[in-house]
Amino acid sequence: MSWTRKILRVNLSKGTCTPEALNMDWAKAYLGQRGLASKYLVEEVDPTCDALGPDNKLIMATGPLTGTMASTAGRYSVVCKSPLTGAIAASNSGGFLGAEMKFAGWDMIIFEGKSEKPVYLLMQDDKVELRSADAIWGKSAWETDDILHATHQDPQMRIACIGRTAEAGCLYAAVMNDKHRAAGRSGVGTVMASKNLKAVAIRGTGGIGNLEDAKKFMDAVDAGKQVLADGAVTGQGLPIYGTQVLMNVINGVGGLPAHNMRDVGFEGAGDISAEAMAEPRKSDGKPNLTTNAGCFACTIACGRISTVDKTHFSVKDKPQYHGASGGLEYEAAWALGADTGVSDLDALTYVNFLCNEDGFDPITFGATVAAAMEMFGDGDLTTDDTDGIELKFGSAEALVAITELLVTGEGFAKDLGQGSKRLCDKYKRPELSMTVKSQEFPAYDPRGIQGIGLNYATSNRGACHLRGYTVASEVLGIPVKTEQNDAEGKPELVKAFQDATAVVDSAGLCLFTTFAWGMDNIAPQIDAACEGDWSVEGCLEAGERIWNMERIFNQAAGFTADDDKLPKRMLNEAIKGGPTDGQVSRLGEMLPKYYEIRGWNPQGEVTAETRKRLSL
Amino acid sequence: MKMYIEFYASLMKYLPPGNSRFRREVKVEDSLKLNRLIECYHISPEEAHLVLVNGHYIYHEDRPNRKLIEGDVVSIWPPVAGG
């Protein structure tokens, strides 16, 4: 079905599970997943509430195409107010859980209140119930997945859950699903833990129907799949090399930050790149990369399945990590690697396993470790603070030790688990936190790639590349090449990417399709499946509406134009050496124009006219 | 003159034998044009998607007339993306 038109409301305080009809007026304006769940959140949650209190809600939502045969149509999002940023959070994940929720007959699940004791939700088609999580509370995400599968004796059950870091209060804990996929950013897992909700276990046996025009839909889907197959990036580049192929590209163009973004350019980039992952190891002749992998209905299959060298110091006495598991993606490899100065591919792969096993965001974690390393180098932190760990840039041993410590939630892990903003504030070096709205940057330096800096500054969930991936145009030439060092034209580029991304994130599709698909490929699939106007123009208007709705939530939560800023390092400390030598972010040139084309006033507030135009 | 070539991802197969993972020092005629260099290694225009000289992107239309000089580093990728 496009929309099942049915949602489940779970009141954890009362222990009740209540089906309700989907609000179709909202669905026709906000599509699904990120957009529609955010609409429910905006209507039901006070933006000023405590993100970890019972008044916050946690919404798991599919898109109208989730579960269909459209390529990559397996996505779902977790939406809530973020404990890391205080802003709206919408974290997107692939795997198979989203489609399973659809097969069970539900568009979304709204969790509200807080359970007195740890519970998990069991959803088997129409049968839904809360069960005691006594047997899984305190377990890792991987153990939880295994125990629930064993308990219910159903290998096809799909599970989303939190690990031990969420339970320990780490502010950037993820909601893991299918073991290796994550709704990773902004601490959505921490909110789940705050509700004493350990897991959601879903089995659906229903089919897909109720498409607005099934024949037209299948024609549009077939045409879309052909475009992906013919596209050099989606047909060859991503399945063979994965996202990690970017490591050398971004380093080559002078856009790869290193050492807590103190430097741009990392000499170890080649050693932790996609190409290195494919090289046979000396010890056993096998490469780090075992195979690629795809999520539900995906015809790209960019996922990485990797192994760590069994003789490597990190795992030699830990046979449980000798098997193949979710491998490095570019963002994780950058944050855990280049940003910390670590170029040991096996160490990074092992640490990435731990991020999956216990469910925490490798970007924020890696960047927080990098900030701690810079403070350690400057003498602001000593081994007395770090539980004896020599937290030096480039030390794989330190990275492994600090990651294992984080999972325990003990000692310095309590500081690390707060993210770099709070960590740097505590140790009186606030300027060393590389964040926007308290969320850490991903793997592109805003001094070397101008548009992505504007996107970071204005992203509704804090620094994030996935809100408007202008790198596609500024570096990779998709759909057309723009100059990475130009500020002119970037406000328009950023707005276009942000609005289009909001559509993809609300449809049930993966953003990576946009390396081959334009909105003229996406809109016909949505339009054939769904009631309403889902022409290209209709889709883009919905995207703009979703963006502005998120902005209005953040304004009500207390965010102002003063929060649309980059750290001083990005504005004042020029890049030294390389092709972007001498550059700083020219955010100040871009931001006023961005506000103007958004239809906001000079203070960055959504105006009455814009609200009216977008029916907000 | 001496210069450097760097081929990445699926283009690594075009690298002459050598020890470095991506880079080779090569001797070429003075003032060689960028497009000619790419042709010398049998890399098709479709494969040579992202072409940098010393880290700076060179547009397709500028490649035929772009003269290379001693010490230049030419880096080439096929169409790739990630995020």
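qc> The mean pLDDT of chain A is 97.
qc> done
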